[in-house]
Amino acid sequence: MPTVVTLQNGQTFSFTSNIATDLDIIPVIDGSRIWSESLEDRQAVAEEIREASRKIGFFYLVNHGVDEEYTEAVMRQAKRFFELPEEKKMEVFTGLVPNEYVGYHPMECYNRNGWKRQGQCAYWKDQKFAALGLIRRTDLSEAFNWAYDPAEDPEAVDQSPPAVSIWPSDLPGFREGLYAYHTKLLQLSRRLTRIFALALHLPEDFFDEYIRQPEAGARILHYPQQSASVDEQNGIGAHTDVECFTIVNQDETGGLEVLSKTGAWVKARPIPGSFVVNIADAFMRQTNDFFVSTIHRVINRNGRERYSAPFFFGFDRAKPLEPVPTCVSADNPMKYPIMTGGEYYTWRTNKQKQTNTRNTPGQRAN
Ligand SMILES: O=C(O)CCC(=O)C(=O)O
Ligand SMILES: [Fe+2]
């Protein structure tokens, strides 16, 4: 019997086996050419990215130009933060900030894949109901998110938007370490956006006006080693990302899995020095499904603690996500209603925050 799951973007999907395989379906792309002076080189890498983005929606980027000084520093800061006592981390609880995804997301409080039966709910622990099936637990991970801040963007055109992130007290160097990384990833993402324009057979500067003030949030995550089975619990449940594309910096533990088009879970094994890049929902909408936003999850049964740092890049909140002209035609009209980036992100953020079992009605974002 295939398992059917409904995601927060409304999409349903199914898979027949919950066991991930090692199939090599995620291409490894040499990113050095995205920085090349030669348009031919940039077009060549763009064609590889085009194929990856429409077939699987995931690729590894090696030789991406971000020094390991930054990728390692962000992991060190992650370890420092997650080692703090729970009450210290709860000082920056995300439930305190309506509409924004910033701050601390506690362990085992979210349920990304929409499972109904949660460990915290007493009724499912009752013998007579427990007999109805597995007790399913909320995601075994904790996260801290921070947002774009024009003061940390060397290319910012407008310094007026307020910084929305919240920061723990008494953790010197934490904010600085995270923003040093964030600024490098902003630079890489702006460059990649130009390559995505070429990949969509558009002029290279086509999306430039969308990324002067981008939506660019990031998070650090900690996944303890799980002892529960994959059927009972995930590190982060099956989901798609919200913005245009995500750049994931993962440690050497492993655990990220991608759902292939044939319904098999495939391991995105760690490749030292690489980033994993994936297409997210706003880009899939804008390209009228030409690029695919692929379902993924994390299961850490690898015998050690896992840390990761995804960076989520999206277009300016104020701009309508107009269809990409090379992806619509009389025979292939736009499938989605047009809304601004901001309207789309806010809707999705609130949906996600409401799966947090710790939000009290007073704290709930809406
Ligand atoms: O930890 C990872 O490798 C991926 C995390 C992820 O998918 C997310 O935060 O959206
Ligand atoms: Fe994700």
UniProtKB/TrEMBL annotation:
UniProt lists the family membership as follows: Belongs to the iron/ascorbate-dependent oxidoreductase family.
Keyword Metal-binding belongs to the record: yes
Which Pfam families does this entry report, sorted A to Z? 2OG-FeII_Oxy, DIOX_N
Domain named Fe2OG dioxygenase is located at 214-315
**GO terms for biological process, alphabetical:** small molecule biosynthetic process
Q: What organism is recorded for this protein?
A: Thyridium curvatum
Tell me which UniProt keywords the record has, alphabetically: Iron, Metal-binding, Oxidoreductase
A molecular function GO annotation: oxidoreductase activity
Is Iron set as a keyword in this record? Answer: yes
The organism sits in which domain of life? Eukaryota
High-level lineage? Eukaryota, Fungi, Dikarya, Ascomycota, Pezizomycotina
Q: What is this protein called?
A: Fe2OG dioxygenase domain-containing protein
